[in-house]
Amino acid sequence: MIIIAGENEENTRLDVYLAEVMPDFSRSKIQNYIKSADILINGASKKSSYLLREGDRIEVNIPEERELKIVPQNIPIDIIYEDENMLVVNKPSGMLTHPTNLERTDTLVNALLYKFGENLSDVNGEFRRGILHRLDRNTSGLLMVAKNNKSHEFLAEQIKKHAIVKKYRAILRGIFPEDGKIIDLPIGRNPNQPCKMTVRADGKPSRTILKVIKRFKEASVVELILITGRTHQIRVHTSYLGYPVYNDTLYGAGKGKVTTQEQVLQSYFLRFTKPFSDEIIELEIQPDEKYQKVLSYFESRK
Length: 302
Fold this sequence. Notes:
- By secondary structure, the protein is an alpha+beta fold.
- The protein has helices at about 15-20, 25-35, 110-115, 150-160, 235-240, 290-300, and strands spanning about 1-5, 40, 55-60, 80, 85-90, 140-145, 165-175, 180-185, 185-190, 195-200, 205-215, 220-225, 265-275, 280-285.
- It has three domains: about 1-65, RNA-binding S4 domain (Structural Genomics Hypothetical 15.5 Kd Protein In mrcA-pckA Intergenic Region, Chain A, Roll), CATH 3.10.290; about 80-160, Pseudouridine synthase, CATH 3.30.2350.10; about 165-265, Pseudouridine synthase (2-Layer Sandwich).
- It has six helices and 14 strands.
């Protein structure tokens, strides 16, 4: 199995990353495989503590019969766009993009395998078949999927060059003071809470463009454009500035008066170049039920 490290994996420990993408193996087993050179980086043996770089080629030489396969599941998929090389789905809030150490079923990948079988890219391994980029479990919206490795590489190059436009809509807790802002703050993993990211001086460059659409007494409706695509980027940036995404309990918003399934955040717009052509594809979806519910609440209190 070959895995290519992406932008979000840079500076992540080799064993930590592999424990995430190979949930059938414990971290200690993975460390043993690394030590015995069953896992190579760019053709060379490395330590478990090796910090990944974008583009690293991870070669996993573990006998296939010992690998756990992901079970295809007949879960409905909301396909917004599809051609012979790719598709764009509208991932619902509450669904994981791909399996993890703790959860191996009911993810988007399980659903994709049922519908498309082997007709999905495997650049990022079995547990991320077709997956080019991720959305957090409780973030809904548009997500690109590659049907083959060539289209995966074509689209991944666009992501790397920041040529894909991704817009999000969100409701923030509090009244954001500026009409627009470019948030340019480096993001890295929180050393005290590995499941969280944080703004830190030695983090990776991270830029978000924020535009206020509407203000209420206790909240702000905003549009956000990702220039980079770090893990939890929008949630970390807005929380750091003191205006976390509504109901985002992981990043300090607490539970608002309107109950929702965590953060009120939706990826609603994508613009990209169709694989192997010059055609520009633009896709936009309507606000999801969670966003509309909170928006209606604040509208009613004006």
